[in-house]
Amino acid sequence: MFYLTEKIEDIVKARMYARQQLIEGWDQGVIDNGCILIIGVGALGCEIAKDFALMGLGKLILVDLDTIETSNLSRQMLFRVGDEGRPKAEVAAERLKEMNPYLKVDFYFEKLQKLPISVYEESDVVIAALDNFNARLDLNKICLRLKKPMVEGGTVGFEGHVQIIIPEGSGLSYKNKKREIDNLVDARLWEITEMEYPEYFKAQRKIEELEEDIEQIREEKINPLIRRFRKEIELVFDWKYAPEVLDQTPCYRCLVPIPPADDKLVAACTLKGLPRNRNHCVIKAEVNFEKKYGHRPDLNLNDEVLKLKEIAQEELEKLRERVFNENIPIEERSSLTKEETEEWKKNIEDTFGADYKFEEMENILGNKIAAIQTVSSVISSIESQEALKLLFRVNGRNIGDPMDPPYVNYNGVYGQFDHLTIIKNNDCLACGEIEGEENVHIVVPFDANVGYIFEAMKLSEHKLDPELWMITSPMTKEIYWNPYMPSMKDPNIKLTSLKIKNNDIITLSPLGKALVESEIKKYNVIITFM
Ligand SMILES: [Zn+2]
């Protein structure tokens, strides 16, 4: 009986996957035994998970630390009305099992940084379907360390991109070997001088002069040299060039050397002063809400969003009034006609926008970016396709090379795809030669002092003990803060009085115990004033 059921299952599967088996080079066994880890089960993650569930993948691992919100239902195709509040990874796993009962799905309602290492290790390919830089940077680091191929994608409004990342030492050959050898031969030819190879140059001139002799001369004087270089390069290609040009791509960090400042910093700065734009008013309203009701507003509750909107509206009106008063001195106000006053008020309203709408609260506080299902499905499908080819490659098979260059951009307005050449950065903090450094971008209030630098570092998740770190200027070597010298240890001194300007870079270096214990030996910190 058991034998029979199993046989029926095999027959059903064979029928299900019959069409894809017709693709040249396909081996359903690779898919059956494959394991793919998807980090982020949002619009992209849902689509990608669905693709692999339908194709009959052996095992999917889903990771997401969020719960389902109403605004997700317009794009995240595994979720339905009524799922709000439940963990995304869990609901997705249920739906995928309904789609394909033969699929094995593990799910984690957890941060990617907290996953057991074994989860990464058992995966053949890792797919990033994330919505923020920092999670991508962390995942990039993990994949580089574990030598796991990673497919990364993202969308903003009508645009999106896909990048594939093949770490050094993964053993996956990436580029087309023949084409790379040709490129190297060409490059070699550009380097030679007439002194070294007078015959070659003479021959080149003859070609121009005597067109009819071109073929003959080429064969006699040029092709031998090309053949010689090719032979030379072919001999050493595998050990000398292959690791660099064949087996790895630039990593995600190569493209994002300095991650943009954390939103928390911008919010913290906003609260130190008066709101100066539409978004500031909502951030301020959130704090006022907390003071009034004793908790932060729950954006899933309509009632609380409405109350928040009301407070934000008050702030917006105060802002409009403040700008009006700043622009028109008291003594002039009485002389303005009614029409002139209305005109001013209308201009101010145009600058700061109309009254708030309900959905703006969540969009602003969550720092949400534009997203639409049509673009998500284009980008997610490319991610799935690249991951599929990599899955075969990891298993020693080939149904197509990974896309080259390894980065594609999609513009949904023009319906255009652009392959971008991206370059591996030798100074990359994740895959390059520099070790123990970190670049950080911080946003500080205009009147910030030296002490605030440590606060801002803490907010961007680099908690440093002010007693163990020194701050200097990399250009002038001037010391701004040295905990070991009482005269260099005034946290209240203003950054502006130290002549630190907008977008200047400062250096934080460890001392004493931190010098021994900190993994990072140097922070390069860009300071933006707001
Ligand atoms: Zn890199």
TrEMBL record:
What species does this protein belong to?
marine sediment metagenome
The alphabetized list of GO BP terms reads:
protein modification by small protein conjugation
Question: Which Gene Ontology terms cover its molecular function?
Answer: nucleotidyltransferase activity; thiosulfate-cyanide sulfurtransferase activity; ubiquitin-like modifier activating enzyme activity
The Gene Ontology CC terms held by the record are:
cytoplasm
Q: Write down the Pfam families for this protein, in alphabetical order.
A: ThiF
According to the entry, every stretch annotated as the THIF-type NAD/FAD binding fold domain falls at 27-429
Q: What is the lineage of its organism?
A: unclassified sequences, metagenomes, ecological metagenomes
Question: In its UniProt entry, what is this protein called?
Answer: THIF-type NAD/FAD binding fold domain-containing protein
